[in-house]
Automatic annotation (TrEMBL):
Residues 3-227 form the Nucleotidyl transferase domain. This is Sugar phosphate nucleotidyltransferase. SUPFAM superfamilies: Nucleotide-diphospho-sugar transferases. InterPro entries: Mannose-1P_guanyltransferase (IPR050486), NTP_transferase_dom (IPR005835), Nucleotide-diphossugar_trans (IPR029044).
Length: 237
């Protein structure tokens, strides 16, 4: 099984932690980087080949990960010379990838079964499978519904439930056909194109543990919880 890890971003939202370190290498707990945890999980799940799409401070990631042999993985690299969006790096890799593969952000902390996501993607025949997570958004204000300057409904401080993308995807190589390598391609653009073509992505709903380490408060929470979650996150790794 093959996974592509997107590790080329600048981690702007996580500054100052990412001033000198690429975001996938910020430490979690006393001994591990986020990327190391992900690589351990992928290896334990049966993945054998990982491609790291690197850009900002990519040479540090390359020095840290090497050829991946310490995790029983074969790791190669794709250098992103300029920002290409979430899916853009895959276009340059298309000829190096199998028909079905996993794509994920390099800053995801979760106990998601990556192998099952890819298996379900293959079985579904979908062009794209999106791992999703339930999130509740609390609105701290009274919400008004208006029509022609008249208030027709009012809800005091409502909560709204959504399923959000976890930053983990099952992708079919054929889904990337028709896009130009070297040009940016965002996740949003790909999803909207598939919906317009009535070739809808599938959802893989997950309700376990998940944190997107994108903001300082999420990063602080991850560190605070890691000691009690370590056995869950690194089981079998």
């Amino acid at each position: 099984m093959h996974a592509v890890i997107l590790a080329g971003g600048k981690g702007v939202r996580l500054r100052p932690y990412t001033t000198a370190l690429p975001k996938p290498l910020v430490p979690i707990g006393d001994q591990h980087a986020i990327l190391e945890i992900v690589l351990r999980q992928l290896s334990a799940a049966g993945f054998t080949h990982v491609t790291l799409a690197i850009g900002h401070l990519g040479e540090i990631i390359r020095a840290y990960v090497g050829d991946g042999s310490q995790w029983a993985l074969t790791v190669d690299y794709a250098l992103e010379e300029s920002p290409l969006g979430t899916m853009g790096p895959l276009l340059n890799l298309r000829d190096r990838l199998p028909e079905s593969f996993l794509v994920m952000n390099g800053d995801v902390l979760t106990d998601l079964d990556y192998a099952d996501v890819l298996r379900r993607h293959r079985e579904s025949g979908a062009p794209l499978t999106i791992a999703t997570y339930a999130r509740k958004v609390h609105i701290d204000f009274g919400v008004l519904t208006t029509d022609d300057s008249k208030v027709v409904a009012f809800t005091e401080k409502p909560s709204m439930d959504y399923r959000v993308s976890m930053g983990v995807y099952g992708v079919s190589r054929s889904t990337l056909e028709g896009y130009t390598p070297g040009l940016p391609l965002g996740f949003d653009e790909l999803v909207l194109d598939l919906i317009r073509a009535q070739n809808q992505p599938h959802a893989y709903d997950f309700d376990g543990y998940w944190l997107d380490i994108g903001r300082p408060d999420d990063y602080d929470r991850a560190n605070a919880e890691f000691t009690t979650r370590k056995s869950l996150l690194l089981k079998g790794a």
